[in-house]
Amino acid sequence: MKIIDVIIRSFLYLTGGKSIKHLYRTILAANVLFSANVCTLLYYLVGPSLTTCGIFYNYQITILVVSLTVWFYLLRFLERKYLNKRGYSRILSTYVPKVVGILIVIVHYIFSVYWLVESLFYLVRHT
Q1: pTM higher than 0.70, yes or no?
Q2: Total Cβ atoms within 10 A of residue 80
């Protein structure tokens, strides 16, 4: 979990504060990218078999349902993990240099969006 702590701390630099409200905004922003990463893996692993098995004729609805489900459960997990006193103090005690933190966020964002779009094209090609 130390990697997730570093990423959350890096996102906390961009929200510009150290309060619980800023940590909640950070969790929402990080959840979008974490959900994109999980959905990308699901699309690569399960996507072609879902669209070719004949059960799901409309794969866009399937993609939407899977994405929203992953987003919701991941958000609940991150909230339970970090929006308490122990998680909040652990995030504030995690040291990441500011420049490195901002680079982590930029690189994570670029790769997450790229791989999500690439996995959607992969899914469309295999239908």
Answers
A1: yes
A2: 10
